[in-house]
Amino acid sequence: MRVLLINTSERVGGAAIAANRLMEALKRNGVKAQMLVRDRQTQQLTVSAVRQSWLLPMKFLWERMVIFLRNGWNRKRMWQVDLANVGTDVTSMPEFQYADVIHLHWVNQGFLSLADLQKILTSGKPVVVTMHDEWYFTGVCHYSGACERYKTTCQACPLMGGRTWLPDLAQKVFNKKKQLYGMGKLTFVGCSQWMASMARESSLLKGIRVESIPNAINTELFRPTDKDLARESLGLPKDAPLILFSAQRTTDPRKGFALLTEALRLLDESMTDQSQRPTLVVVGGQSDKIDVALPFPVVSIKYLEKETDMVSLYNAVDVYVTPSLEDNLPNTVMESLACGTPCVGFRVGGIPEMIDHQQNGYVANYKDAADLAEGIRWTLAPERRESLHEAARKKVMENYTEQRVARLYSEIYES
Q1: pTM of the model
Q2: I want to staple 25 with a disulfide (CB 3.0 to 4.6 A). Which of 133, 159, 403, 406 is the partner?
Q3: Lowest mean pLDDT across 121-135, 152-166, 171-185, 228-242
Q4: At a CB cut-off of 8 Å and minimum separation 6, what does 411 contact?
Q5: CA diameter of the chain
Q6: What is d(CA 307, CA 261) in angstroms, rounded to the nearest whole number?
Q7: Residues 94 and 235 in one domain
């Protein structure tokens, strides 16, 4: 069985990390897996990239320009949608020809167009699609929020300006996807049960097989280590409780840092033992630009390139907080739990599937800063440390190991 995983990037972004980890999991469990990307970050032998040329960035810029012109010149919304109006034909590449199964992941931002997807689906090869967000079953958006138009037909998309006097691009893309999905042997997979259940409600996927399989993680790498040594290696405070927040772009409103700020203020007001004042560790892009007044000391780390450093970070902190307002199955939560570090997050998306309330962390009411503060306070209690640590690791070992995820995907490939 030869499987080709296709993703825009090799290592940048949650979908890329998940796809790369799946490739490694498959290889270690008897499947010949390769990865094809547009943007390659390493010299990994089983990762190939499309031929680089000046056209690739031009295609990307053209798609962004069309979106920018049509969404009312709104920069904030420019990254929330993808039109797939430009791309690269990968079907003639040796890696594609060699594969028995094509496994699509996140292929947006000018990598694969709808025309390219059509060539893949009409190639005769069976296709598996892992949905890292909602784009495959909506018109153009990655997260639909409160909008449910994908259940019938996407039209007058709010993220595209909703103009009725211009050709409706969201509806055009939606209709094209509906046509495409009837052309090949397709199976869709949601990384979370939440994503899979939403996909089944989309009129695009009526009558198409939809499964739910979580992302995989290397539990030999992401594992508990000595907390004091981890803090020393990263230069973090040795005595204070540490709260971790991380994101690829920490200032992204969807990541919920504003609510975390409010929760920390409420936590500070409720603290009676000032000797146990925590320190907030912020990791990710633009972490140094967070200039809001926080009640606790802040340690800013722009980026940790090595996974071994990430393992040290998760082991160094006492709790990982993910105040995301929209999310599928965050790799960060899985990484933290694998290291035995409890997590706190809102009841949204696939997060409640990972965090078992008051067992390996705390699930707060959606957008409720007070409950988020209570979750952090509850999780930091010293008397719960050992039980939370054990439950966190157990959750990962029972659900997200490479062996289990590789077996579930192999069963889909074989079928």
Answers
A1: 0.92
A2: 406
A3: 152-166
A4: none
A5: 66
A6: 27
A7: no
* 207 and 71 within one domain: yes
Assign residue 256 the CATH number of its domain: 3.40.50.2000
The DSSP 8-state label assigned to residue 347 in this structure reads S
Predicted local distance difference test score (pLDDT) of residue 271: 84
Cα-to-chain-centroid distance, residue 86? 24
Q: Does one domain contain both 210 and 323?
A: no
Which region among 40-54, 64-78, 201-215 has the lowest average model confidence (pLDDT)? 64-78
Residue 127: how many CA atoms within 13 Å on its side-chain side? 23
User: Do residues 369 and 263 touch, judged by C-beta distance below 8 A?
Assistant: yes
Q: Which two tokens stand for residue 174?
A: 């939606």
3-state DSSP assignment of residue 246: strand
Q: Do 98 and 159 belong to one domain?
A: yes
- Residue 347 is part of which domain span? 227-399
Q: pLDDT for 279-307, tens place per residue? A: 999 997 665 666 566 889 999 887 788 89
User: Average of pLDDT values for 304-311?
Assistant: 91
pLDDT in tens, 19-34: 999 999 999 999 999 9
- Vertex 2 angle, CA 125 and 222, to 5°: 120
Does 164 lie in the same domain as 37?
yes
55 inside domain:
yes
**For strand 47-49 and strand 101-104, is the pairing parallel, antiparallel, or unpaired?**
unpaired
Q: Are 82 and 59 in contact (CB under 8 A)?
A: no
Please tell me the total count of domains within the chain: 2
- The answer to whether residues 390 and 407 belong to one domain is no
**Domain-located, residue 242:** yes
